[in-house]
């Protein structure tokens, strides 16, 4: 999540807002191809704000289900 947050911050610095989709930070870089999946091989849930100035990033945790107690969340605020 830390690596993703750094890349998202770089996107915001370059373009003035966070990307609309997490896959946008991968670009064509093969070293970033697995970046959008967490330790449990679930795809991160990325929700940018409508104005693109904030976001929430969530790992589904071990159970692979959203909005359960093992979710790990990061917000840009």
Describe the structure.
The structure is a single chain. With 77 residues, this protein is of the alpha+beta class. Helices cover 18% and strands 17% of the residues. β1 and β2 form a beta hairpin. It is globular, with a radius of gyration of 12 Å. The model has no long low-confidence stretch (mean pLDDT 94).
Set down the secondary structure blueprint.
Elements: H1 2-15, E1 45-48, E2 55-59, E3 72-75
Antiparallel strand pairs: 1-2, 2-3
SS strand fraction: 15-25%
Strand order of the largest sheet: 1-2-3
Number of strands: 3
**Discrete helix count:** 1
Percent range for helical residues? 10-25%
| N-to-C SSE string, H for helix and E for strand | HEEE
Q: How would a crystallographer describe the biggest sheet?
A: 3 strands, antiparallel
The parts where pLDDT drops under 50 for at least 5 residues are none
Secondary-structure-derived class: alpha+beta
């Amino acid at each position: 999540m830390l690596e993703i947050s750094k890349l998202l911050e770089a996107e915001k610095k370059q373009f003035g807002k966070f990307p609309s989709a997490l896959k946008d930070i991968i670009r064509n870089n093969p070293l970033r191809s697995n970046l959008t999946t967490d330790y449990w091989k679930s795809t991160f849930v990325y929700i940018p704000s409508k104005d693109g100035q904030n976001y929430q990033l969530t790992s589904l945790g071990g159970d692979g289900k959203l909005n359960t107690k093992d979710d790990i969340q990061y917000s840009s605020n």
